[in-house]
Records
---
Amino acid sequence: MSGPIPKPSDLFRILLLPILLLSCSPGGDARTETGGSYGDSSLRDEASGESLSLNSADSGSASWERSAARELLYAEALKKHLDKDPSIRRQVEEYRKDLLAQSYLDFYLSDKVQISEEEILEYYRENRESFRLRQDRARIIHYLFSSSDDANSSKRILLYGDPAQKNGLTERFLPEERTVNRGMLIAELDAAVFRDDGQAQIIGPVHSEYGYHLVDVREYLKSGSYLPVAEVRQLIRERLSSRKKEQNYQQLIDELKEKHETK
């Protein structure tokens, strides 16, 4: 084998990149990095200087239309014998190697990156400081009304209504549920939500230039407190999974290098 052997960490990053060969997915970009004369899957509009790509998002074109266009262009390329172009043949072979290498890596790692709940809790305990809040935070459901009457009647339902009435309120006004930090809301709401008592409660109506607001504060976390493990479980899982993938990848490369060197 000629040429220097890439470090395992470099190969790992390369092989984990999505491999797209003339993908039809919206928003994709299948330009090659080698930059051959026919290696770019986009066509340049010389008048505007903009790139026209078969893989770019186009709200006016369905996926099947892009697929049909690709087949037509592919047929014309064969007529011009572009498939015989040495630079294209090299790129196709590189795509093929990448695709097979990635497929094998996925197969090899498929049963080696399971993350247990015990591992998640251990990571949380060991890295708890990284989950400490630097700002006050609240999980809220925000209602916006055009009239004070609607806002006040809705507040009574939120406070005293039965589940059916509350569901009807949600279906009618379509409130927004989100997590916000201090300073993210408009001034009137920010002052009302992030008060010194910091309690979960129904706030409002609060009047602003946008209308009448009700805020159902479901959870309030003060600055300096820790995010609960339930909120960061998926983040921890992704971190541990990435770590295990790289560890197992490096182990695999070492084994394969040793295997081929002993031949």
---
Amino acid sequence: MVVVKKKKRKYTREQWLKKALDVISGQDFGSIVIDNILASMRVTKGSFYWHFKDRNDFIEKLVIYWDESFTKNVMRHIGEMKGDADERLLELMMYVTRKRLARYDAAILSLAHNEPHVSSQIAEVFESRINFVSSLFAEMGCKGLDLELRSRMIVTFMSQEQNVLSQKSMKEQIKLIKKAYDLLVYRFDKGKDSKWKC
């Protein structure tokens, strides 16, 4: 009788990090239990230590991966676009919605509370999002408190509403995103054909 050995699964570091985001987003309050990730991936702790020095190293790399894949990726996409700032801002909101790029934000924010050594790193990512959106509003002529509040409202809305919106069809999501965009960008009294409210 021939015994066939089961091939061990091999994951790249990126596959590890992607799977970890899926696992923690399904847990309460973004807590990271390495054993849960190992069980989900059906691998041993040896696989974990092949890619990461320890738990803290893993969590730090996870935040870097989330930033690169779900923030810097968006900034690059919008940075490559032509067109006015209002068109680029709408595309940013649509791109995040279509690709569901804020789906891990709630888990990451919870992670910031449970893992203090990465809380400032996570805060910097959200601040970079606000600064990026601010640069678009600044191109539209917004200044001061108006610029800051609009930028924060867009980032907060996009980050926090993703889980709620994902329960709706993509058509409904797009409709709601366009409405939020209209409310935050254009004059309330004159509609889209007017100049910016700033």
---
Amino acid sequence: MSAAGALAERILGLRPAYADASHLLGLVAIEQGDYTVAERHITRAIEASPGQSVYYYNLGLALSSCKGPEDALSAYDQALLLNPDFIEAHINRGLVLFDMGRHEAALSACESAIRLDPGRADPHYNRGNALHELGRKEEALAAYDQALALNPSHAGAHNNRGNELRSLGRSEEALAAYDRVLVLDPDNSEAHTNRGNILGGLGRPEEALAAYDQALVVDPDNAETHKDQGSVLILLGRLQEASDAFKTALKYAPELESAAYLLAAVLAEDIPPLSPRTYIEELFNGFADDFDNKLVNKLSYRVPEQLFDAVCDHTGKQKLTILDLGCGTGLCAVVFAAVINRMVGVDLAPRMLDKARERSLYAELIQSDVHCALEKCNEFFDLILAADVFIYIGALEEVFSLTIDRLTPGGLFAFSVEVSTYGCDFSLGLTGRYTQSTEYIRRLAINNSFEEVTMNPVTVRYEGDKPVAGYVVVLRRPGNSLVIEETQNRV
């Protein structure tokens, strides 16, 4: 025991109810990492002298490690009830709320701390983290900037500022932020990994690989970094090394679905029927803010327009009730705006839905996967869209059977697929995207009593300067609710 602890023990031997001595023993236990003992000593101090806000504050520190956030939060609340200007209690209360996922409340706690002392960097940094989780990216960026104005050496603020810049599509600025972290902290594995992610996105895979290698020197057991390393090795055509990287990732984190998924793509073995939910959420949440620009302007993506033309060739401009599966940021809603009677959007990624909501074209937006949305839906639609959705769902049997039950008689099912060249129903490419054969699509249509209206070959996007071949397909549920021309465009 430390000298301070020994002194406190002697004092308590003489005066068992001496609160400060019990409190001191609690602090010694916290320093030693023995939080259960710390809780016992500090609770004894509070029983002897219940009016001391600092006792409750330090009890919160102990409880956050030995019991849980609810107990810690209660202790911080009591500290602030006794001393509303206790800035450290506001700060730690905000951290606990953040860890609990209560980001609005965490933001409020950070702002209370800032009002008490606007010149401290950490509350601004914590505020940025809360704003990030709330999807308020520009405000988060401003909060990190304020933290750095107060403490230019705050490596965490530089790193998270880089993350925010990346999510806003400002890649070069993000790269500079990560470089700054590494000047301050050369062994920051997270910054090395983030730098690799940026370099990979900028089309600089060799540099990205070097960044991941450096991250793994510092943190060799990091499964996410091994997975990211594997993704870059795919881009470099080094498939055996990519396979090894994914296997290493799974050794350290067997539950890492994205690594197993990409390993299946590399090996072309044990292909799953659809992409993992976590993979999709991570992928699309990560670039929601730059999605439209990247897809439309950089990749020449025109699937919504191609679907609109294919649908309207057979329906004219009559108003339709539409279900938009995998709606993303709402590109289909913009294109179909002139024919919307009511439109419902479904997507897995909450930040994509936030962007779709800003367009004010959807009557309802639902965070869900395609299958669950169709299963739970009680509404019938004139048109169900799936633009660039089936590149993340390989096996389409369930989608087809659920979709026809949600269409009005004569209703249309319009979607795009990428062309499979592997001679099988569906395959998973090295891009992490599925392709389907036209024979598979036609067999599913027949098995589910759809009538084929259109199956047009199109370029769905460009990868670099190479067109990606696909089809725009329109199928029809038999019936007479919609007036549809009988002409079919067959391949």
